[in-house]
Amino acid sequence: MDFSYPPEAEAFRAELRAWLAANLDERLRNAGAVRGLPAGAEQVALLRAWTARLADAGYAAIHWPRELGGRGAGLIEQVVLVEEMHRAGAPPTVNPIGLANIAPALMAHGSQAQQARFLRPMLRGEEIWSQGFSEPGAGSDLAALRTRAVRDGDHFVVNGQKTWTSLGAHADWCQLLVRTNTSVPKHRGISCLLVDLRTSGVEVRPIITLSGESEFAELFFRDVRVPVDALLGAENEGWRVAMTTLTAERSGVATLHLAVRGRIRALIEDARAAGALGDPRRRERLARLYLEGELLKLLSERALSGIVHQRQGPEGSLVKLMWSQTEQHVAEVAAEVLGLAALGGRWARARLAARSYSIAGGTTQVNKNIVAERVLGLPKSV
Amino acid sequence: MNFELSTEQEELRANVRRFLAERGARAPLAALGLAGLLVPEALGGAGLGMLELGVVLEECGRALHAGPFVASALGATRLLLAASTQAEQRELLPALASGERRAAVLSDASLREVGGSLSGVEPFALEAGDADWLVVAARAAVFVTDAHAPGVRIEPAESLDPTRRLCRVTLDGAPARRLGASDASAAIASALDALVAGLVADGVGAAARALERALEYAKQREQFGRPIGSFQAVQHLLVDMLQDAELARAAAYYALWAQDAAPAAERTRATALAKAFASEALPRLGAAAIQVFGGIGFTAELDIHLYYRRLVSLSLLYGDAGQQLQRIAEIAFARDERD
Which among A126, A235, A237, A249 is annotated as catalytic? Predict the structure, then answer.
């Protein structure tokens, strides 16, 4: 057991820290985004420029191969990058979904022409990418999706509706899951298309969340003509492509604790300023929250270590569950500790926004079903 | 970033598990040479560390091992190593390492030494009834006394946990021999942290086994024509148990590692985190195991309640959740706390 990072990773940390010190200004530090996604047009412009600067230095997507502009970095270096970005208060790239989730699918299933066309502008933030996965009738049961694509010569004609598309309001392109065959079992009739969102017939409507933010959008497709060479992977093989995408999403779990522990420290400071640390009940409540944050960190480190050392453990599946609970507890404990001061301001916003953590990316209940079946080996539930 | 046990540590686990399976809850661990696991090789021990001892204790927890083991091989040994002189160690530790003698450790706040004799009460002393010597932390000093000396009364403690050998020890003018010469506060703190980390490892083992037993039952027991483990309500209960078990395991391993490898401040923090969480979560896990079994789980016939008993006693011994949270608050709310 040894919690230190290998010397190469520490050398990378030092290099990155120096680069950040020279390249990160106050304006960027304050470009905070809603859960890692930009919200307004001004912020998008700022983050596009930041992404280009990161890309030119080779830091925008270090997990990509070198020849495509990454560093071929392993998991530990990716963790170091997130740690240092977090430490420096750097904003996220403008293209988090493209770089982390869509690019792996493009690299695994895309044609040479598609990779040559899309990867570079994605890396530099010149084209922002979104995913059209969920639908009003296909949330937890994603494979039930009904947006149709019908072949018409050298085009598909797309009709349907997508929802909960992150970055939808700012995206230029969309990785879209469509149904291309209705006469086979649901997983086998899905295809994946790369769609230019400025195509005629596409309508984007922002979703206003219960906390008043608009980080998601609905996408409507009415007779949208998409060229057949926009297929990513083979026709009706879209489910496999989508799974590549969703698997790539998991490498981010090892660093989820950074932001939530930062919020816990901020709450401790607010409690100190409010003179609440002397009260035994509030003190214990905060200590329990601190404990939760540290446990999340330990669980994440166990998960990370398991991946690095090829040990099949259950930790990775549990991190998302634990993380969402902890995030929600931060906002609740803020009210227990600060009282009326949490009825307005940042902790009030956090309280409302926190409801999404147990819904987005798989609800807590669906995740528990999955852990029950895949980790505990229990029979499929009714 | 290596949060894994080594091949040797996993081999040790396999050996201990096999031995306990063959010999049962009373298996004499000294016969495997484990009594001296922490004792340096020069004094007849194995010269291993807290991670190895933690692996052994995890297996003891799984098997509901009745001891005596932990008080002597961990508590007393660690306190002697930290607080006594080399000459005293040469005199006392070889006998503990071989298993020829056993010691228990007392640390209740009521313990006092006046003019060479000890007084005070330890209401729940681990395995004191099996001890030849009592190693006593009283204020900032460490003493040793013969367990059969006049002024020492050891009787079984009335507790809900029959799986550990808990005794009520009353010292009333027991002859005390002071060990070491200087202030032993730091030595006592480090030895008690190690004992706590070891007890948490024991709890992790007991919890893991209780979860396995509940899981096996949920897959096999049928109601309404299907295994109860196919009902989401039962599944989610088991997933919550898994989450508690894995968090406790991560915290326990970190605390075990910190005993030998981290500075005192990090060691204390790691120990308090592990014990606070184990105290809150593991009794909850033990209760959930009974719940999965339903009616049969509430009978004396089935032994699932023994895990619950062991996890409840773990939660209360050596600082319950509330006391650990106070320690955590002191550490976490200090102004210079960074990451």
Answer: A249
